[in-house]
Structures are given as C-alpha cells and as structure tokens.
Amino acid sequence: MSAVDVVADTLARIEQAEPALCAFVEVWAEEASRRAAEVDAQVAAGVWLPLAGVPIGVKGRAGLRAAAARALVAAGCVPVGATSVPGPGTPWQTWGLGAGGRTVNPWRADRTPGGSSAGSAAAVAAGLVPIATGTDGAGSVRIPAAWCGVVGLKTTNGRLPSADRTGLAAAGVLTRYASDAAAYWRCVTAAVDAPGSGDVGGGGGGAERDRQKEPDPAGTAQEAEATRPAGTSEAPRAAGTAGTVEAPRAAGTAGTAGSARAVARAEAPYAVGAAQAAGAAQAAGAAQAAGAAQAVGDVPAPLTALWSADLGFADTDPQPAAIAHSAALRLADAGLVRLAGVVRPPVRRANAPVPGDAAPSHAANAPARHPEPQPHPRPLRLEDPGPAWLALRAAPDADPAILQAAQELRAENDRLLAALFAGADLLLTPTTPNAPHGHDGPGDRYSTALTWAFNLSGHPAISIPAGFDADGCPVGLHLVARPGEEALLLRMAGAAEAVRIHPARAPEAPA
Q1: Closest by CA position to 220, among listed 384, 455, 9
Q2: Measured by CB atoms within 10 angstroms of the end CB, which terminus of the chain is less buried, N or C?
Q3: CA-CA distance, 136 to 156, in Å (whole number)?
Q4: Region 296-498: CATH code
Q5: Sequence-distant (≥ 6) Cβ neighbours of residue 204 within 8 angstroms
Q6: Whole-model pTM?
Q7: Rounded to whole angstroms, how far apart are CA atoms 5 and 1?
Q8: The domain 3-229+255-290: what is its CATH number?
C-alpha cells in the first residue's frame, strides 16, 4: 500500500469515529493527502524514510512546532490532525476545542480519557492512528495512556527540547504497541542528537531538568490551568524542509512506503476489531521500518524491580493497585524481573483536587495464586510531591519561602530515589491511584499522585496496559527507570507485550 492509500484509509476512519469520539480538534485532510503524495514521491526517488507514510496525531494545534513532531515528519510520518487538549476553564476535563464537545474514553464513553494528552490517547486506543505525540507535566501522557489502555512514554526531563518554562514537562508519545514507541524514540533522538539539528530539535538533548525560558504555547500540562493553544493550526511541513532523519535500516526493510503497508502482523499481541485492523497494521509497519521490534531476549533479565502501591503517601484504590500488582507479578513469573516491595496501606490522603483526578473505590481482584513479593529492606516512602510541584509550577510568582521548601522537598525525594536506583533497575507502581472518572469531574482525588513525583525528579517512565477493572476500564502499570534509560523501559514494555501480561481486548467503536 502506498502512503496515499494508508492516509486515505486513516482519514476515512477518523471521519467515521469523530462525531462520537472527538479525539481531534482539527483534521488536516488536504494537507495530509498532499504530504502522503510527497512521501510516495520521495520513496520512489530512492529517499530513505524510516517511517514513510505512517499517520500520526499531534497534540494540540501547536503540536507541529514541537521538536519531536518535526522529527517524525522528517522521518516520513504524515500528520493527520491536532488532537484534543483541555479547553479554557476545564483543567480536569478534556473537551474538543471546537464545537464537537468533550473527548470521550474509547472504552467507556461516560468516562474521561484522562489528560492532558487525551485526544492523542483516545485516537491511538480507537485505532485511528498508531502514534500520537504528547507532553507530560505531571502525568499528562501516562494517565491517559493508562485510562485508554495504550502505551505512554514520558522521556527524561531535558532529554528532548521543551518549551515548558518550569522544566517539569517532558516530551512523550502514545502508541498501541511498545515497538512503535521505540520507533518514535529512535527517530526523535537521532534527529535531536544529529550535528546541526537546530531546525529539527532546537539544539540537542540538553541536561536533566533543562529550564527552557519560553512560555508553553500549547498549555502542555493538564495539571496547570488549561489554556487555548496559541496561534492557528499549521499545515504539515513539506518533505525535506527539516532534513531527513538517518536512522539505521533494519534488516529486511526496504525503506519504502511499504513501512506503512496495511498488512496485519500475525504476532500482534492484542486482538483488534475490524475498525482497528488497519491501525494495528500501520503500527506493525512503523516498528519494522525503524528496526524497533523487541524480543524478550533483549531485556537483561531478570531486572531488580521494587513494587510500591502508594510511594509512601498516595491513597491508592484497592482495585487498580491489585490489577497493576498482578501485572507486575506476571512479569516476575515470566522471569523478566525479580520483584521486591511491600504492599502497604496508604500513609495519608491528599486533601485537595488537582486537574485530571477522580474515581470511586473498588474491591481488590488480584489472583490468589501469586505469592507476595519479598519485603524490600528499605520500603519506599517519598514525600508527597504535590505542594512542591504546585509551587514550582507557579514560579517565579510563588512566595520565596514556599519555593525554598519546594526545592528542599525535591532534594529529599531525589536522595531517596538515588538510593532506590542504586540497588534496583525499575520502580513499579499503578499508573494512577484511581479509575477514570466521569465527565462531571474528578471529585477530591489526585490522579497525578503516582506520576508527578517523576516530573519533579526528571526520571523517565512508561505506562503499559495491565488489565481491566470491574467496570471495563483499563488500568496501567507504571515503570520508572534511571534518567536516560528510556531504551530499557521500551524493551521491558515490549517484553511485557510478548508475554501478554493482560487479557487481549479492544474497545468497541463509539456509538
């Protein structure tokens, strides 16, 4: 299949799904078709494009300005539209920014998909695109990934260029398969790290917690007060204007539009419905083109992993904790990790709502056959990062004494995490302490409770599907690694897919 054919199929599926899903605030049908034709022409001329013809969604109307999106376009991807982010005055709920209404969760239309990368997660979960960009300021990639049952990678803070003035937000991606997140990672880092990459990446990887001074035009953090993206939408950049990403060619790939060929892979780890078949096939092509498919043997197993249901402070509901814990134990059963940790009751409960939160309590449902993990000699008890995150997000307008306290809390958590990762390769938690809330709001819960500590510390993290709760909502398993170890997280996510740590299911098309 040509890139033109794949993009035409993608646009048709978006048109069919969008009246109900509202994952996109804009669809660039003409621009995408034109870009697909350019990709086909480049391929015919012998240009190597590692992701030739792969349709992508970009977060918000300003998403194409991001370094990651520009790198993906240079690698041959075709942006098909801008995905939804929270509108003004809706910090906890994601709406389409046009007249279409709220974005819904593909699994349960009465539930939020999470945010702020909500449209990206919903579009990937519904099989509309195989890859969608996101940003993560306190969980804005990982929370919607967990609640929509997809993979969500938050990169090390400062590894990729960011416009967030606070340094809390990091670039990320949402995909159906871990191999596609690996394809994203390989192409984007190749572009950002290439000599003279200013047009693509704005100057290389940078240091952890790189404090960019520009304002964030897209309102990237759901956790900050949501604002409408600045400026109007821009058409995808013509091929070649950002330079071609020279990624290593995988054995057996031809570097042609065949990288977007819609032929479903037989080894796809999750069942997909007819409406999702083409998206899954495109995901397979993306992985093959970038040479990113990973096998269990690629993980230096068993890794030492510490389990924590609450990080020492979060009020985690029993059901998501049990489901994520069961998934962690299946990784141990497969010989991928050596699990340590203590499942403990929460120490205290957060006492104020923040954007993106909510959900009722549920009964635990972990399989009884699994043994409990062995206690870790130093159970993890981080300080609640909420006050520090909020103070740093408000800087420089926050009170100096509050900022000083925030920096002291950050330093203490950094010390605790350094001690943890001196003896462990991974930290495993539920991605969220609660299930997806309804469209009426989050209640008094911090959905960010288990994610925003790592925006403060800068660690890379990934949410992978762990299973489903009693209401049919997805639950995520959260994996955190040392700074700079995104590749390890991606290999472990691929291995988790290979051993099928949760039942195979796919959402029905929204009614």
Answers
A1: 455
A2: C
A3: 10
A4: 3.90.1300.10
A5: 192, 193, 197
A6: 0.78
A7: 6
A8: 3.90.1300.10
